[in-house]
Amino acid sequence: AQSADYQKSLEAGALAGGEAVHNITLYVSAIMEVKSSMGTIVAAPTAGSCGTFPGAVIGVADSLGLDEERIVKALLAGSLPGLFIATASTFSAEILGCQAECGAGAGMAAAGIAWMLGGSVEQCMAAASLALQNSLGMICDPIAARVEAPCLGRNISSAVNALTSANMAVAGYDPLIPLDEVIETMDRVGRSLPHELRCTALGGLSTTPTAMEIEKRLEMKQHQGDGSD
After folding, report:
1. How many Cβ atoms sit within 10 Å of the Cβ of residue 148?
2. CA-CA distance, 127 to 110, in Å (whole number)?
3. What is the rounded CA–CA span in Å between residue 30 and residue 25?
4. Which of 46, 149, 181, 208 has a CA 20 to 30 Å removed from the CA of 141?
5. pLDDT tens for each residue of 15-27
């Protein structure tokens, strides 16, 4: 039944896709590049996940031809799940892994996109719940101990997660678990992750041979740049 409802919504032009996905990839990448070059960004919810929320919302808005006022309102709508997460849990990857950063950003973006698609408050919260459910257990394992990669890919995939979750919610999918319970679950899951997988660069991709070689090369360049022996 859910797939049939989704097809109806798709045929009615009520969902977003196509151009929106390309916009998301482009916009999230651009925001992350500004962050990485020490430019000014809004850390929503964090610097390491700064591309997910605005990149997804603005990318979808542009594909829908929405004006700046609608974009601002969508960002405000998306901030509501973020307030719930900040109040009941944390945005810190050091405490909960990347699910608290990119995962939270996905939940916020999903609510904002659902609002742009005409979703009700219930559907916006359902979208946030779905996106956060899809992010549970996401670890934080920065390559070469820098918040660059795999952060970029996770920001982009989290933004696309937000888009699909919003489409699902607006089409009538039932998230089953309400957002507040998903946030509590995220908190429990994150605290049960091994320390090595919570932004310490001591596990995951951080400890692969290639990652360690990249770190050595970067350290050598840094020494050469500052005149160190």
Report:
1. 16
2. 5
3. 9
4. 181
5. 888 999 999 999 9
